[in-house]
Amino acid sequence: xxxxxxxxxxxxxxxxxxxxxxxxxxxxxxxxxxxxxxxxxxxxxxxxxxxxxxxxxxxxxxxxxxxxxxxxxxxxxxxxxxxxxxxxxxxxxxxxxxxxxxxxxxxxxxxxxxxxxxxxxxxxxxxxxxxxxxxxxxxxxxxxxxxxxxxxxxxxxxxxxxxxxxxxxxxxxxxxxxxxxxxxxxxxxxxxxxxxxxxxxxxxxxxxxxxxxxxxxxxxxxxxxxxxxxxxxxxxxxxxxxxxxxxxxxxxxxxxxxxxxxxxxxxxxxxxxxxxxxxxxxxxxxxxxxxxxxxxxxxxxxxxxxxxxxxxxxxxxxxxxxxxxxxxxxxxxxxxxxxxxxxxxxxxxxxxxxxxxxxxxxxxxxxxxxxxxxxxxxxxxxxxxxxxxxxxxxxxxxxxxxxxxxxxxxxxxxxxxxxxxxxxxxxxxxxxxxxxxxxxxxxxxxxxxxxxxxxxxxxxxxxxxxxxxxxxxxxxxxxxxxxxxxxxxxxxxxxxxxxxxxxxxxxxxxxxxxxxxxxxxxxxxxxxxxxxxxxxxxxxxxxxxxxxxxxxxxxxxxxxxxxxxxxxxxxxxxxxxxxxxxxxxxxxxxxxxxxxxxxxxxxxxxxxxxxxxxxxxxxxxxxxxxxxxxxxxxxxxxxxxxxxxxxxxxxxxxxxxxxxxxxxxxxxxxxxxxxxxxxxxxxxxxxxxxxxxxxxxxxxxxxxxxxxxxxxxxxxxxxxxxxx
Length: 724
Prior knowledge:
Layout: H1 31-44, H2 53-83, H3 96-127, E1 130-132, H4 140-154, E2 160-162, E3 177-185, E4 191-198, E5 205-208, E6 213-217, H5 218-224, H6 226-229, E7 233-245, H7 258-269, E8 274-280, H8 285-294, E9 301-305, H9 315-318, H10 336-340, H11 345-351, E10 354-358, H12 364-375, E11 379-386, H13 394-404, E12 408-413, H14 421-433, E13 437-439, E14 446-447, E15 450-458, E16 461-469, E17 481-488, H15 491-506, E18 517-519, H16 523-539, E19 545-550, H17 556-567, E20 571-576, E21 593-598, E22 603-604, E23 607-611, E24 623-627, H18 633-637, E25 639-645, H19 649-665, E26 670-673, E27 679-681, H20 691-697, H21 706-709
Parallel strand pairs: 1-6, 8-9, 11-12, 12-13, 14-25, 17-22, 19-20, 20-21
Antiparallel strand pairs: 2-4, 3-4, 3-7, 5-6, 7-8, 10-17, 11-15, 15-16, 16-17, 18-25, 19-23, 21-26, 23-24, 24-25, 26-27
Helix pairs in contact: 1-2, 1-3, 2-3, 12-13, 16-17
């Protein structure tokens, strides 16, 4: 797929996605630089002319938000190590200071690329009558509307503050923006410096009423009305700035009350050490010196740009009502087998296991599963893990309804879900008030497994229905993340799920598991065991292969095991969306390993492992698992995660022969990782294949019920061809 070249800032979108790879790390790629190449791939989608214009703008906004979070957590972590003289060596042999230097260079390069792409998209948006008029003249009516809006909606909210010995330097919150004004008092010619902090409650971009979509940034609106803010002064100049602070929350081992600790830690995070200072426009040197001095910028990165700062704010413009400039709306399908049972989730699951492929199939079925449990008089208990549930959560509402109906409801709420801590505290409080037993899990480990279990009284006795997911119980992300929801009434899975909850709530470590594998107890060993079995098959001359799909692969032990499998002749195909520290295609190390990354309309989020078990993949006897865990040390050693085997033949075929295979076949949204660390966009080939389009237009295999018998078959994917 061709990318568009840019003619400014030295950024050539025709070059492969690449960042400098330091010498000395022959076996592994650096984690931080690998993440930055991922965000570069996200940014490259803003250049993808196959996408509608506002969707390209969305990718630019996403890349900005991604980079902000990376800076606030990962770069902050490196800066903290340097400050505390911690010489922890990275997987590729670099010290924190060496990593920080390489990351600084890459971050500045990414932000330069973002500015170039923003300039290009602005021109194209203007041709579609969507205009950001920060530096352009407006007519009299537009100016009058802006003036009135400023007087009525902005002026009462902002507070100018003089910067002098009589006024303490104001606190600038994390992700806070402000404007420094250089003024001259007309009465006596005295120079004055004033700061206006922009309240986060004000929208970043304001749309001027009219048929033509004209937007103006909040910082430009304030600057345009400086005469109203500062009567009696002459404006000599102004500069916009933005601050990013350390936002990571470290858990102290002796934290006595986790809830109280997190409430305090969230407040501390807003005042974390400044990691990046962004400056926009021709920033006054005296003003810049003042910011550097007052913000104590020791290790901070200072980035100056003539363009826009805070790219994430462009999401406001993406929301413009122009359907012809966006992806065609997609409505997820509801599983037909559940409809055949008149919407009775329990009856459908009791008949046989079912897997739901989000976002192509509706997340509403997961909510209906819980709603039905809440309303069913035969349901006596519900247990649920909650990692991220969103701000408007039907899942929370269903659990509250169940508790209020007198059922025993237990919710494991993970407080350590980064940037969702405050929301999760709120949900925990509401659940407790409704009578839900709320558990916060382990102090040191995050509970990242996605599990829901419902205990129901039936004629044959008590039966437990389980849902295991690869994604969060979050209705919004379920519309844009590709994930798998697996429903089963298998008694072995039910007993294991019960053991898992007892482990989290009572620290009762399960002595044995019948079906599921959990971390941090045995998941690593299970993966090693499966990889070793493929190694033995290869040595015995049998077909040996591994297919895996995950978001990140950084654990050196797991990577070394895959290297060993490659050296034994096991053919390994990996689909890794984000960070990959494994170096593929190196003779004598990884020559049998191929790695690709899929970046497209939906965010690939499901985790799948498939092991050939003595025959070519795909095959009916392959060992297939879905998981909540990525290939990272934290997932394998410091989180509660689940690995779920798929044994039902129909579900097995869907996960392996459709979901996994389609990811491997995709050519339109895929990037190949080269041995030197660069990513090359795949050639479309004679038979281009887009996995997202395929699943949007073809029905699921699992959950079809009688629809399969009616002759409306699911197309068969072939490893050799795009689709048969």
